Amino acid sequence: MFELRLLAPEDRVEVVGDALDALDALSVSVEDADAHTEAEQALFGEPGMPPPREGWQRSRVVALFDTRAKADEAAALLQAQDFFEGCSLAGIAEVPEQDWVRLTQSQFAPVEITESFWIVPTWHEPPAQAVQVIRLDPGLAFGTGTHPTTRMCLRWIATQPADVLGSRVLDYGCGSGILAIGAAKFGATEIDAVDIDEAAVESTRLNADANAVELSPGLPERAQGEYDTVLANILATPLKVLAPLLCAHVRPGGHLVLAGILSRQADELKEAYAPWIALEVADTEDGWILMTGRRAA
Ligand SMILES: C[S@@+](CC[C@H](N)C(=O)[O-])C[C@H]1O[C@@H](n2cnc3c(N)ncnc32)[C@H](O)[C@@H]1O
């Protein structure tokens, strides 16, 4: 394989990408050419908010070709086009052969939640000290245990007395289903796991089967009635909008566990939930916090 590398300003990326597709590139990837420099500009916004810009000011475009001749030809043809003005050729290089499966797998090691509770990909053996294990491979849905927000929720689940987690649990925004599976491993027996993303619902179903636990995955309408514990690892903005709905699902005396919140957002979350549940910061990791609260009995 051969990589053709180009630099393109924001307004040329699309046309250059389309041209590379038309020139038989096997793949085209676009990255921020200023990443990890002073000139880097964040492009993401919270859900429901527009991104600050449509694209990076300078992009690194990398196209993969199966022969050197095709990469050379594509470079020559692109450089002859009017739309290439402002773009530049950064080089053509052979891509060394890699065992991509092994490389990807090597990036996902077992994740420790507590000394005896681990998330373990299927290509690893569980560590000797693991008493409880969730088997989970990276897939289409968020939640492999590598993110601090997921880890804090799981740590909360694993360290509560059984009567706190309870038997009826709702995982709202279930992604891979990892929190729902964790709840099942720690004694919950009636678990609804819901998400707005159909792929997450399917992923939860498959991961529940792989872990031999029973869950009811579905779209948000599946959440019905009151639960002993409601878990929601989303982001601050949707969590604020969802406050009345999530609190209504917590039974009197039950617990609410929220993640996806940055430390500086603690006060806004407390305020949004104050009419129903008094939230406190229960855990913190890498600038993220876990907020929990109990509905009055
Ligand atoms: C950060 S992931 C959390 C996944 C998993 N629960 C975990 O802890 O790792 C957030 C999930 O919430 C879902 N989500 C976002 N907004 C939602 C909403 N309003 N209602 C239900 N699910 C939502 C997303 O599709 C995504 O799968």
UniProtKB/TrEMBL annotation:
Binding site for S-adenosyl-L-methionine: 150, 173, 195, 233
GO MF annotations, alphabetized: protein-lysine N-methyltransferase activity
EC number: 2.1.1.-
Any one GO CC term of the record: cytosol
GO biological process: methylation
Entry keyword set: Cytoplasm, Methyltransferase, Ribonucleoprotein, Ribosomal protein, S-adenosyl-L-methionine, Transferase
UniProt keyword annotation of Amino-acid biosynthesis present: no
Highest taxon above the source species: Bacteria
A Pfam family matched in the record: PrmA
Top-tier EC class: transferase
Cellular compartments annotated: Cytoplasm
Catalytic activity line of the entry: L-lysyl-[protein] + 3 S-adenosyl-L-methionine = N(6),N(6),N(6)-trimethyl-L-lysyl-[protein] + 3 S-adenosyl-L-homocysteine + 3 H(+)
Annotated PANTHER family: ELECTRON TRANSFER FLAVOPROTEIN BETA SUBUNIT LYSINE METHYLTRANSFERASE
Similarity field: Belongs to the methyltransferase superfamily. PrmA family.
Role this protein plays: Methylates ribosomal protein L11.
NCBIfam families per UniProt: prmA
Name used for this protein in its record: Ribosomal protein L11 methyltransferase
Species of the source: Pseudacidovorax intermedius
Protein encoded by which gene: prmA
